Predict the structure.
Amino acid sequence: MKFLGRSKPAPESSTGTAPTTRERGNAAEDRALAYLEAQGLRAVARNYRTPGRGGGEIDLVMRDPGGTLVFVEVRSRGTAAFGGAGASIGAVKQRRIVLAARHYLLRLPSPPPCRFDVVLVEDTVQWLQAAFDAQ
């Protein structure tokens, strides 16, 4: 029986087994962080979560050289089937990211300019600046 999914075997984790979803997600975030830092952005926070159930999470909070606070969603997929990583950022996911960003900004005395970026980590890293708005 053939299943849809990865066309190549998953790399092994440090335990010698296939990596967990969390391990693959952390690896994608590591690649995205390294890529953004190489582009001149500075890390401010990682995996910022709002308190309580049903809140949101921001994978990376970065500051660009001009001072803009950048909320980054990192997406990775093992295969391009079903639209790949980019197709997995729907309206509900965007609303949760915006909710978390608003919560994050409430902690600051004076909110700086902000934007929402997406980094797609597949075979290559693709950075989509201002991928969506807070609306």
